[in-house]
Amino acid sequence: MIQKVGVVGAGTMGSGIAALLASAGIPVVLLDIPGKEDRNEVAKRGLERALKARPAAFMDPDLARYVEIGNTEDHLDKLRDCDWVVEAIIEKPEPKRALYERLEGLLKPTAIVSSNTSGIPMRVLLEGRSEGFRKRFLGTHFFNPPRYLHLLELIPTPETDPGVLKEIQRFGERILGKGTVLAKDSPGFIANRLGVFGMVQAVRLMEKHGLSIDEVDALTGPLLGRPNSATFRTADLTGLDVLKLVTEELAQATGEDFALPEWVLRLVAEGRLGEKTGAGFYKRVNGEIHTLDYRTLEYAPRAKVELPELKALRDLPLTERLPKVVELPGKYGAFLRELFARTAHYTLEKAPEIAYDLVSVDQALEWGFGWEEGPFKNMDALGLEGLKALLAEHGLPEPELLKRAQGAFYRNGTHLGFDGAYHPLPKREGVISLKALKSEGKTLLEGKEAALIDLGDGVALLEFRTKMNAIGEGVIRTLQKSLEYVEAKGYLGLVIGNEDPRAFSAGANLALILSSAQEGDWDELALAVRQFQKASMSLRYSPFPVVVAPFGLTLGGGAEFTLHADAVQAHAELYMGLVEAGVGLLPAGGGTKEMLLRFTGELAPYEEADPFEGVKRAFNLIALAKTSTSALEARKLGFLRDRDRISMNRDFLIADAKRRVLELVPDYRPPLPPRIRVLGSEALGNLRYAVWAFREAGEITDHDMRIGLEIAQVLTGGEGPAREVSEGDLLDLEREAFLRLLGTRKTQERIAHTLKTGKPLRN
């Protein structure tokens, strides 16, 4: 069991790995070379860099206390009781081998040692080491930033003990939340070898086909199922100096042509390295993004690439989009056809050399470079006959792997092996795939906006299917039907979750709300809010356990559903908040009531505690639309309770939520409705004064003040003495305040602005 980890090397990668380990609750020793004035200053700077990193390297900055710093001359002994030591020092074999020599005589016999090298072969690093050391050694290649990129490439040697590999794989997946892929001990391993080749090809083909940087990034991002950062923005984020170093190392190690154009090397020489230096392929000028003209090396305002053909393709599923992408007319189509042909050909040629199977290749690009689908899935989407024609068009010979494929690389739950036979897709223990369950006919109820799926063992799952999983009438209707179905059919419990890559739920359907308000359908709106509240409360009082499995964006109504579950199984990357104030509203699906109930309830056992502190905490959370940057912060803010659990790995989230339901079943009883003490006029006066003070200081607008006063009205129960009220009383106040705010011109302007721009409006 790995209970303590050492990280040697406090650079960007080493400090990021240490932050990830600490975020997972693992004590870490972080060492680097001695400094001159302060012997620990290099490691200290690494830790400070991780604390200041944006996006944040730590899931909770308080967890930096798990990291103990030191230097490699005075404090190597601190590694003596570590179960795993990760080496992340300079990318040269000699210093790494010298470190291993020192570690070999120091570490306990069971300690695992790994290198985070991005490309140096393990066999080179192991020269001179004993048999015992070799058995406990492997490569563990994290991707930057370690917290956010899912991929962890594991590079065992022929001598690596299978038990060591199994333990690192388990720890990487369950504790650190990584998708682990086994890679062969070849230069660049899998993801960098193929991903960097593709980036170099895109740069070269841009020049060949007469495109601009803006055009290439428009063509090589979401259009191809790749991240928004596409090619050049990704390079800016990584660093042009890093790109230069990696391409040079790959060229030297493989003998292949990875050379970057001369103008890119000139940018590096001039210190234009991307995001970290303020300029690279892009540059921010007075808040605007300017793009490099590679012919002149000057910057000009970014040009939007708008073509009717591109617009028509964007909303199609990737499998339908790709065949049409390579048929685009003109220079865009010519560029994309050649890019697809060259990268597919290289992948087909190199896959057996760098990976153990093509599934690993797809996972490596999906998890390490953020591709929606890996290269072999993309080739299947294009069609293998079309791929052969594309290769022939560009004078590329048909690779052996393509000759062996019988119609597709993936067929009926199998994949083509490098031996030419088809093998069952590897099953990942503890992972439930909704896509697979749906293909097996496990859908119980289905509507346009949501569906109920059988997870097995008497547990069902409600899946939202709207854009960003927004909650509207269809979702609420299917939720109610699902609750009735689960009870009637004798299911044990319900999970609410989905496999969307970005959002559990971005909240209520704002476009529908705005449209109804503008048309004056107030009776319908009042009924809709009442139905939303009823849906939230039905999660709380169903006769069986309901577990919500939130992840990513969990906002507004999505957060309110989460708050009313019996238990929550959250993914570590949880961005949860009651953000209604940002669009001029307040939470009216029970969220305002629930935060008051929670925060005042926490203080109830303490007679000397001032209950107004609970009211104030709820007010600040809602009025400021606070959103967590992780599940750990969500717990601090009060969105998650101590009994709610966190899954580090999104892949296991649904299975973990199902297991939580089964744990709750044996002695489950729905809770009794509580009575809630509201503080009335005195507390309302205090909150009014605070809101007015902020307005007088010019820190909020008149409409912000209006929103704040409505929130205060609900949280205090309004005018009158301190008294006990029911949940229903507070839900009535929520609903009335919501409708009053929705009826104002300024709130409608805020909603319209957010729908159009995705950003809040302060009016």
Q: Give the strand line-up of the largest sheet.
A: 3-2-1-4-5-6-7-8
Number of strands: 26
Average predicted local confidence, pLDDT: 96
**How many distinct domains?**
3
Distance between the termini: 56 Å
Q: Describe the largest sheet.
A: 8 strands, mixed
Name the helicity range: 40-55%
Structural class: alpha/beta
Structure notes:
This protein is 46% helix and 15% strand. α16 packs across α17. The strands form 6 sheets. The chain has an 8-stranded mixed sheet with strand order 3-2-1-4-5-6-7-8. A 7-stranded mixed sheet has the order 15-16-17-18-20-22-24, with helices on both faces. It folds into 3 domains: 180 residues, Rossmann fold (3-Layer(aba) Sandwich), CATH 3.40.50.720; 234 residues, N-(1-d-carboxylethyl)-l-norvaline Dehydrogenase, domain 2, CATH 1.10.1040; 185 residues, 2-enoyl-CoA Hydratase, Chain A, domain 1 (Alpha-Beta Complex), CATH 3.90.226. The two termini are 56 Å apart. The chain is built from 31 helices and 26 strands. By secondary structure, it is of the alpha/beta class. The longest helix has 25 residues. The radius of gyration is 28 Å and the shape is globular. This is 3-hydroxyacyl-CoA dehydrogenase/enoyl-CoA hydratase family protein. Pathway: Lipid metabolism; fatty acid beta-oxidation. One of its GO terms (biological process) is fatty acid beta-oxidation. Keywords: Fatty acid metabolism, Lipid degradation, Lipid metabolism, NAD, Oxidoreductase. GO terms for molecular function: (3S)-3-hydroxyacyl-CoA dehydrogenase (NAD+) activity; NAD+ binding.
